Amino acid sequence: MLLPIMLDLLITHATLPDGRTDMSLAVRDGRYVAIEAGLAAPAAHTLDAQGHLFTSPFVDAHFHMDATLSYGLPRVNQSGTLLEGIALWGELKPHLTFDALVQRALGYCDWAVAQGLLAIRTHVDVCDERLLAVQALLQVKKTVAPYLDLQLVAFPQDGVLRSPGALHHLQRALDIGVDVVGGIPHFERTMAEGAASVRTLCEIAAQRGLRVDMHCDETDDPMSRHVETLAFEAQRLGLHGRVTGSHLTSMHSMDNYYVSKLLPLMAEAQLHVVANPLINITIQGRHDTYPKRRGMTRVPEQLAAGLTVAFGHDCVMDPWYSLGAADMLQVAHMGVHVAQMTSQAAMRQCFDAITTAPARILGLEGYGLQVGCHADGVLLQARDAVEAIRLLPPRLCVIRRGRVVAQTAPRVAHLQLAGRPNAIDWTLPIQA
Ligand code: FE2
User: Please, are residues 140 and 106 in contact by the beta-carbon 8 Å criterion?
Assistant: First the structure.
C-alpha cells in the first residue's frame, strides 16, 4: 500500500510482539500513522528491521533512582538483607549531595535509553527534611523528559508514621510535583500502625487525585497482610485500577486458604502488582536455613485472577543489589525462572510484564504499537519475545517519538574450528 504523505520514518520488515511478521510502521510527527504489511511511502529516514522483533519500549514499574549507582558508598551490604540495606541507605543519606544524585540518575537514564527502557517509575525517599533526593529527581525528570518518562513516587523509606516528620515531608513532596503516593506498611512498628499508614496514605491519594504505589509486605512473614488493607482501601475510596502493591512477597509464604480469599478482593479492587524478581530472589529467604524460600509473590495465580502484573528492576548497584545494567530483559529472564513460568504463553506474559503491563500501571499515554500512539520502540536482535528473553540481545535501534536515540551493533561471533561453521547462529527453528 502506498501512503500519499511524506513520512519522517518508515520501518519495514519488522516482527511485532503479537507474532505478525513483515510489518511496516509509518511515522509522522512523532506518532505512528500506519502499521500494516508492505507499506510504501517517501520517508526522510528508513529502517529495515530484517525480520527482527520491534517492540514498544521497555517500562520499569519499580525503581529507586535516588540510590542507584551508589554501590560501595559508604560500604557494601554484608548480610544481603533488606534491613541491612535500609540501614546502609541511612548511613549514606547524610552524605548525599544534590549534584551527585543528579549525576548518578542521569547516568542511569543513559544506560536505560541504550537498553530501550524509556519509562521508569522511581520511588524517591521523602524521609529527609531537605527533600534533597526529591529536588534532584524533579530536576532529572525535567532534563530527561524529551527521551524518557520518569514518574516519581513519594516513598517514606523509614515509615510514614514511624519516622518523625515523614508524613509532613511526604505531603511537601507531593505539593512540589511528585506524582504518586508511596508507603511501606511492613516497616511500621506494629501491624496496626502498618494498616493505619495504608489508610492514611490512600486517603491522601484520593483527596489529591493521585495514584498509589506502596512497598507492601516485603517480608517472608506470612502474617504480613497489609495487601488486604491496601485492596480494601482502594475499593472503599474508589481508587480502582489506580493502586499498586509492590513486592507482596509475604504472599509467597501465606496459607493457601487465605490467599484463595485474598485474590478475589485484589481483583475486585483492580489492584496492580509489581514483583521484582532479581531483588526478591536475592533478599527473601535470608532467615531460612534449608529449604530456602524464593519469596517472590504468586505471579501466575495473580495473572490467572485477572490482575495486571509487572516486573520491576527495583535496584541497580545500590545498598540492596550489587548487579544490574538497566536491562529489563534480565528482569524478565529471572522472572521466568523464579515463577517457573516456562511455557511459551507464560514466557510471553513475562515479556508483557516489562512492556505493556507496566505501561498500564504507570498510566502512560500513547504507549503501544497502534496507529495514533507515540512512535517509540526498540529493535532487538531477536525474532520474538521468547527469544529476546533467552538471548538478552543487543538493542539494535531505540526510537523515541520517531527519532533514533540509541544504537548498538549486532552481536557477531566467529568460530575458528576446523569442520565447524564460521559464523555462530544462536537461533533454532521454532518447532510447532
Ligand atoms: Fe523497592
Answer: yes
Q: Select which of 188, 218, 233, 387 is catalytic.
A: 218
252-280 pLDDT per residue, tens:
999 999 999 999 999 999 999 999 999 99
Report the separation in Å between the CA atom of 213 and the middle of ligand 1, taken as the mean of its atom positions: 10
Q: Where in the chain is the domain with CATH 2.30.40.10?
A: 7-56+368-414
For 7-56+368-414, give the CATH class: mainly beta
Annotated catalytic residue 218: yes
CATH 3.40.190.10, domain 58-362, yes or no? no
How many CB atoms are located within 10 Å of the residue 80 CB? Answer: 14
Q: Is the pTM of this model over 0.85?
A: yes
- Contact present, 119 and 358 (Cβ < 8 Å): yes
Give the dihedral of Cα atoms 296, 357, 57, 432; nearest 10 deg: 80
Is the CA virtual torsion 378, 383, 389, 394 positive or negative?
A: negative
Element at 12 (helix H, strand E): strand 7-14
**Chain region(s) in the chain for CATH 3.20.20.140:** 58-362
| Of the candidate ranges 88-97, 195-204, 374-383, the one whose mean pLDDT is the lowest | 88-97
Q: Is the pLDDT of residue 432 over 60?
A: no
Looking from the CA of 88 toward its CB, the CA atoms found within 13 Å total 21
What one-letter code names the amino acid at 9? L
What does 52-72 look like in DSSP terms, one character per residue?
A: -EEEPPEEEEEE-TTTTT-TT
Edge-first strand listing for the sheet containing 23-28? 31-37, 23-28, 7-14, 43-48
For residues 163 and 174, give the distance between their C-alpha atoms in angstroms, rounded to a whole number.
18
Cell triple for residue 170? 511526604
Give distance in angstroms: CA of 62 to centre of ligand 1.
Answer: 6
Neighbours of ion ligand 1 (CB under 5 A): 314
Contact 245, 272 (CB under 8 A): yes
Please give the mean pLDDT across all residues of the chain: 96
Selection from 224, 215, 189, 180 nearest residue 82 by Cα: 215
Give the integer Cα–Cα distance in Å for 84 and 70: 15
Measure 314 CA to ligand 1 centroid, in angstroms: 5
According to DSSP, residue 423 is labeled B
